[in-house]
Design brief:
Helix content is about 80%, strand content about 0%. By secondary structure, the chain is an all-alpha fold. The protein has two domains: about 50-230, MFS general substrate transporter like domains (Growth Hormone, Chain: A, Up-down Bundle), CATH 1.20.1250; about 235-430, Up-down Bundle (Growth Hormone, Chain: A), CATH 1.20.1250.20. Helix 2 crosses helix 7, helix 3 (about 80-110) runs antiparallel to helix 18 (about 375-405) and helix 7 (about 180-200) packs antiparallel against helix 8. The N and C termini lie far apart (about 70 Å). The relative contact order is 0.13. Mean pLDDT is about 80; it is low at about 15-20, about 35-40 and about 230-240.
Length: about 425
């Protein structure tokens, strides 16, 4: 070409694309940058929400653990019998079961943020007010009713639903982290409470716990929110977005409900009756109280590993593994009822298998039915679990009254654990 002619571009497509990118309006570029920043902030924000949810769950679970530890000091100072105070635990378990039904419906109707913050506000104020009790009915109201209503319903239902909405793609690990707050709060509070009571008394211990709890709830109220347009993600089986009535009629939900009912018979009753069982084993009360804290540490370990376990093995095998471990813990107790080594092994194995089914079952329900009705379904499942717990405590105590030993209770629980292993393999999501 001549010097007067314009040379053709070497790569017309690249140059044209370059020119188009240069001509892109500035407001479009700002919009794209805002989208990138929003996604980054969302990732950071949801972990902050998980951390604050963990902190509230931690304080609530720790507060619940304080009552058995402070039972005898309260009895001595106020002149109330331990049997009278123990009835508050029965009221507590009753209202815990009831809350599993109501909190699920309220979570679906009003959203997990409102229900979780309201529940923890009630629980934190109740914890604080226990330090000022002067009448026994106040124990029943503050601990039995108010803490009973908010303990499981607020955490297991509302906070589980909230975290499931924020981590819709991979729920298992975040839910395992959230639910590990229960045993970790149990372990830490049990370790600290005894020292505080010995040094300052039970009233300052409840007062300090309540103040810290209230502060965490206030901070959480400023940062915790729900994701925009929370999704309802159906499971891979294509079940879609059914109503709660349709979901509870599926064989998947019915089998899972029976599994959690039987699970309730073989976990919490042993922790509630830990001291008399330990004394029968030949363990002193001091040693038993220390190992009660180690039980919580084992519960924490078992809960936190269930998330990665599910991703490797699937839900059926993971649940079966948990209940197989529980079976061996009970068999150990049967074969070594007077052995200290057997007592230690029983504590560790029971703790590992104690609470891992909760994040697994919660994540599975969320994948199959979606978050829109997840709160109500979790409420029904955990209500079944606490019905089993109530029956387990009643029958274990009855067995001890009749036979003078808890040995038959271990035998019954071992047989139930075999049934749970089989049921875990039988659960199948709807096609």
């Amino acid at each position: 070409y001549s010097s007067r002619e314009e040379p053709p571009p070497e790569n017309p497509d690249r140059c044209a694309g370059f020119n188009r990118s240069r001509r892109k309006p500035s407001h479009e570029r700002r919009r794209e940058e805002m989208k990138v920043n929003t996604r980054s902030e969302r990732r950071v924000g949801r972990w902050l929400i998980l951390g604050l949810s963990f902190a509230m769950f931690f304080m609530c679970s720790g507060g619940v653990t304080l009552f058995p530890i402070s039972l005898l000091p309260i009895s001595r100072e106020m002149g109330w019998s331990t049997s009278t105070l123990s009835q508050a635990m029965s009221v507590f378990m009753l209202f815990t079961g009831i809350s599993m039904l109501t909190s699920g419906k309220m979570t679906d109707k009003y959203g997990p943020r409102l229900i979780s913050l309201l529940g923890h506000a009630i629980a934190s104020i109740s914890t604080l007010l226990i330090s000022f009790i002067t009448e026994v009915w106040q124990v029943y109201l503050l601990y039995g009713v108010l803490l009973g209503i908010t303990w499981q319903g607020t955490n297991v239902v509302a906070l589980t639903t909230l975290i499931s909405e924020w981590f819709a793609e991979r729920r298992s690990l975040p839910l395992s982290i959230l639910h590990s707050a229960r045993p970790l709060g149990w372990f830490c509070m049990a370790s600290v409470a005894g020292s505080l009571i010995w040094s300052y008394g039970w009233r300052p211990m409840w007062l300090l716990t309540g103040l810290i709890y209230i502060l965490i709830v206030i901070v959480s109220a400023f940062f915790i929110n729900e994701p925009e347009g929370s999704t309802s993600i159906p499971g891979s089986g294509g079940f879609g977005g059914p109503s709660t009535k349709a979901a509870v009629k599926t064989s998947f939900f019915i089998t899972l409900g029976w599994l959690l009912f039987l699970c309730g018979i073989t976990d919490l009753p042993f922790s509630q009756l830990w001291m008399p069982i330990s004394v029968e084993w030949g363990v002193s009360e001091v040693v038993a109280s220390h190992w009660f804290g180690f039980l919580a540490l084992a519960v924490f370990t078992g809960t936190i590993v269930t998330g990665p376990l599910q991703r490797r093995l699937g839900y059926n095998i993971s649940l079966s593994a948990i209940y197989t471990i529980r079976f061996f813990s009970l068999i150990t107790a049967l074969l070594s009822i007077k052995s200290i080594l057997g007592y230690y092994i029983f504590t560790v194995l029971l703790g590992i298998s104690f609470f891992g089914m909760v994040p697994l079952s919660s994540a599975w329900v969320g994948e199959v039915f979606g978050e829109k009705i997840m709160g109500g379904l979790l409420g029904l499942l955990h209500f079944a679990h606490f019905v089993g717990t109530s029956l387990g405590i009643y029958f274990f105590s009855l067995i001890n009254d009749i036979y003078g030993t808890y040995y038959p209770a271990f035998l019954l629980s071992s047989l139930i654990s075999i049934v749970k292993v089989i049921l875990s393999y039988m659960i199948k999501p709807p096609a």
